[in-house]
Q: What sequence folds into this?
């Protein structure tokens, strides 16, 4: 690279950027702009480096490239005289960190007019104050609107998840309350039946036999086989008829209790053989209370375990007790997200989890990744409109972990695929979407994690593919 000369005012007017400037403005640009020559292959500016110059192409061909997943992707190649690159936001001054947004290379030997950022920015604001105000308002307004709507979208997502979690917690909590109330009534009944059994007319040997049967039946409750509805109905009919033959009052009400505990007519024969005829029915009801109480205790245990699991999923989803950047198990985050969104998944949508359990832990921001899973799953559910199959798949793709969210919706048309990750772009109706969910997800994956997010789609088979590096990338820029 070498500095050769400066441009005259007449030469500057040949460039479309400067064609309408006044003489004193051209004088300043001529005095401060260096004509810089580059050989083919030279780097004019490097992506992410501090931006020092605003460049205007005078001759030759330039190439602009961006880094995507560690590979260079060419975005522009042109030989049009007067095109500009480098510090393209120079007019914002210190409102933003001035960095080169792309790498620019000379494809052939080329010449550029290089203007220093700080001086040119100050002079530009002096020359065109109204234009700068308009550009500044557009940039700041867009940025603020994006932040506000992103915050609003996060709050709406949080509200939906909270409603879903509340609904999921309500079911086991209500079940536990109902079981507790029924349990209290059954304990009262057990005390009453025990009083009848032990009022002095019931000898100790029979009571001893009953307690042995009690322990046997209680142990049976925990291992009772799961019956089909038809098998359960047949078993209840069999026990109901057995009780009816022995004139047991309300025998058909007792039959479901014994069936749920896994008891058969052989077990009822053992009860009948253990006690005198006059005490058979009180003994039968006492044992019925026993096994029903055990079933109620199991129901309370299942309900409270479910509540604990939901709280654990919420904790995993929010990552409240974790450090921001950590080695994370992607499967834990995906499962927690499904739990948090379970209230929003329609009954007509089947969820398939196709996980590669050999996938190693991935370095990243777990809470932010969970937000990505939320956005992608929510997008897939909207696409399927109440029916279809949602598939979450994980696999290893070279040095990357691959996470796919697959839906059987109508697909994304080819002309829209390149725009789905643009901010504010949405195909949803007014008020149904902000167009920021996929944009936020894209920035989280690419900027924060050095990964890649893309979509492959055809009718009935849409894949949103997330690739995350298995090894920690360089610390991301703010």
A:
């Amino acid at each position: 690279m070498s500095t050769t000369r400066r441009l005259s005012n007449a030469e500057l007017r040949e460039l479309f950027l400067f064609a309408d400037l006044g003489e004193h403005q051209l004088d300043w640009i001529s005095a401060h702009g260096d004509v810089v020559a580059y050989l083919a292959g030279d780097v004019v500016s490097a992506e992410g480096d501090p931006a020092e110059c605003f460049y205007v192409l005078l001759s030759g061909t330039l190439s602009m490239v961006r880094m995507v997943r560690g590979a260079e992707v060419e975005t522009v190649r042109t030989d049009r005289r007067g095109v500009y690159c480098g510090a393209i936001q120079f007019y914002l001054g210190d409102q933003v960190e001035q960095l080169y947004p792309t790498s620019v290379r000379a494809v052939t030997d080329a010449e550029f007019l290089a203007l220093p950022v700080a001086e040119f920015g100050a002079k530009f604001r002096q020359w065109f104050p109204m234009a700068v105000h308009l550009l500044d308002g557009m940039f700041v307004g867009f940025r603020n609107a994006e932040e506000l709507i992103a915050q609003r979208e996060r709050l709406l997502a949080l509200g939906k998840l909270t409603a879903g979690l509340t609904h999921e917690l309500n079911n086991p909590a209500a079940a536990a309350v109902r079981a507790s109330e029924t349990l209290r009534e059954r304990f009262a009944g057990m005390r009453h039946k025990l009083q009848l059994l032990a009022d002095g007319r019931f000898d100790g040997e029979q009571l001893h036999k009953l307690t042995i049967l009690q322990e046997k039946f209680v142990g049976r409750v925990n291992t009772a086989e799961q019956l089909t509805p038809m098998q359960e109905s047949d078993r209840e009919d069999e026990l109901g008829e057995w009780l009816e033959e022995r004139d047991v009052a309300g025998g058909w009400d007792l039959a479901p209790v014994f069936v749920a505990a896994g008891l058969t007519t052989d077990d009822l024969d053992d009860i009948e053989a253990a006690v005198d005829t006059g005490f058979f029915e009180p003994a039968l009801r006492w044992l019925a209370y026993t096994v029903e109480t055990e079933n109620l205790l199991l129901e309370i245990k299942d309900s409270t375990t479910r509540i604990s699991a939901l709280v654990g999923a919420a904790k995993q989803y929010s990552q409240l007790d974790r450090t921001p950047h950590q080695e994370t198990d992607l499967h834990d985050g995906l499962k927690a997200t499904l739990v948090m969104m379970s209230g929003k998944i329609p009954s007509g949508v089947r969820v398939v989890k196709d996980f590669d359990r050999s996938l190693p832990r991935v370095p990243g921001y777990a809470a932010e990744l969970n937000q990505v899973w939320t956005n992608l799953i929510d997008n897939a559910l909207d696409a399927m409109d109440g029916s279809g199959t949602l598939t979450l798949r994980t696999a290893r793709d070279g040095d990357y972990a691959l996470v796919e969210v697959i839906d059987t919706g109508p697909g994304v048309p080819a002309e829209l695929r390149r725009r789905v990750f643009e901010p504010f772009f949405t195909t949803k109706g007014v008020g149904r979407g902000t167009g920021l969910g996929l944009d936020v997800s894209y920035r989280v994956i690419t900027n924060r994690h050095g990964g890649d997010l893309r979509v492959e789609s055809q009718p009935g088979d849409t894949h949103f593919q997330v690739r995350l590096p298995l090894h920690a990338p360089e610390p991301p820029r703010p």
Observations:
- The mean pLDDT is 79.
- The two ends are 31 Å apart (CA to CA).
- Residues 108 and 401 are 39 Å apart (CA to CA).
